[in-house]
């Protein structure tokens, strides 16, 4: 049994297709298939049910693949420990970030991070929280930037900051007559929401109270806060925006922002990793850079 063979069976389990797994492992499909067959012969068990499409692991195969992931994670930790002992920050960093953060947070820190650590190659992927956690479990991402807590025992969370919510309303909307907003005010007519699957949508629903929500007459499925802002400008209504999404709005739109009275509704933003995560020095360097480039007047760091 070799680490390479374990990498092959993990790749097949991840991609559920021999050709795609071979491409991911940078080998030909016959080479990959031969090594899988060799491992199955050595173990005396069938790891994958090849009669099904997509390919699925057998019951025994599921247990062996899970153990293979643990073994590979441990083996990858060895060169990582050597790099840390030399105080080196380098290599590849695969980062997932949710859509309601990506366009507003990344510009604050990513250029400075790349400049400070030129030997790091960063692969950025924008996706929903469920997709990020799934890819972290499968080893396809190193770290994610999401809203927490996730309440997943397999994940480690490193708090970054707490981001307040604001209200954005169309010109002439009754909410703009108020200097400060309280949660009961959100029962007003014309609320615009992000599409299903976005955690920010669920946070807005929780804050507004689902039973009191009076959505806009036009129902539009979008994952873009920028699209919501433009629709409100033309169609009327209001929505909630995280603070970062308001910082670069032009003055005419800034005038349509209202903040909450008292304790500010907010969301906690964290770095999340699988509990057996690697690249600790690299992830810690990323966290330092994010915190160093936040607009400190608008955000406060959450407790560790």
Q: What does this entry show, briefly?
A:
This protein has 304 residues and is an alpha/beta fold. It is built from 10 helices and 12 strands.
Notes on the protein architecture:
This protein has 304 residues and is of the alpha/beta class. It has two domains: 3-83, Arc Repressor Mutant, subunit A (Orthogonal Bundle), CATH 1.10.10.10; 91-304, D-Maltodextrin-Binding Protein, domain 2 (3-Layer(aba) Sandwich), CATH 3.40.190.290. It is 41% helix and 21% strand. It contains ten helices and twelve strands. The strands form three sheets. Strands 3, 4, 5, 6, 7, 10, 11 and 12 form an eight-stranded mixed β-sheet that branches. Strands 1-2 form a two-stranded antiparallel ribbon. Helix 1 crosses helix 2 (18-24), helix 1 (3-15) crosses helix 4 and helix 5 packs across helix 10 (280-292). The longest helix has 27 residues, at 59-85. The protein is elongated, with a radius of gyration of 23 Å. The two termini are 42 Å apart.
């Amino acid at each position: 049994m070799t680490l390479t063979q374990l990498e092959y069976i993990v790749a097949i389990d991840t991609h559920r297709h021999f050709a795609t797994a071979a491409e991911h492992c940078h080998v030909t499909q016959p080479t990959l298939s031969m090594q899988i067959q060799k491992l199955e012969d050595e173990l005396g068990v069938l790891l994958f049910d090849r009669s099904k499409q997509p390919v699925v692991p057998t019951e025994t195969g599921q247990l062996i693949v899970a153990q293979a992931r643990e073994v590979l994670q441990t083996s990858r930790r060895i060169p990582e420990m050597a790099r840390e002992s030399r105080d080196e920050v380098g290599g590849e960093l695969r980062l997932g970030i949710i859509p309601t953060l990506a366009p507003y947070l990344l510009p604050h820190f990513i250029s400075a991070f790349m400049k400070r650590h030129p030997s790091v190659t960063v692969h950025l992927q924008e996706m929903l929280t469920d997709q990020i956690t799934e890819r972290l479990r499968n080893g396809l991402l190193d770290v994610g930037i999401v809203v927490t807590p996730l309440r997943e025992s397999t994940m480690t969370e490193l708090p970054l900051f707490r981001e307040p919510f604001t209200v954005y309303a169309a010109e002439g909307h009754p909410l703009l007559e108020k200097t400060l907003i309280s949660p009961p005010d959100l029962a007003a007519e014309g609320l615009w929401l992000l599409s299903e699957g976005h955690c920010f949508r669920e946070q807005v629903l929780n804050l507004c109270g689902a039973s009191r929500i009076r959505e806009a007459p036009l129902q539009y499925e979008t994952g873009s806060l920028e699209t919501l802002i433009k629709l409100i400008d033309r169609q009327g209504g209001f929505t909630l925006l995280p603070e970062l999404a308001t910082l670069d709005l032009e003055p005419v739109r800034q005038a349509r922002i209202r903040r909450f009275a008292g304790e500010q509704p907010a969301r906690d933003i964290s770095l999340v990793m699988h509990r057996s995560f690697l690249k600790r020095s690299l992830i810690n360097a990323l966290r330092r850079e994010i915190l160093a480039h936040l607009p400190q007047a608008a955000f406060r760091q959450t407790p560790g």
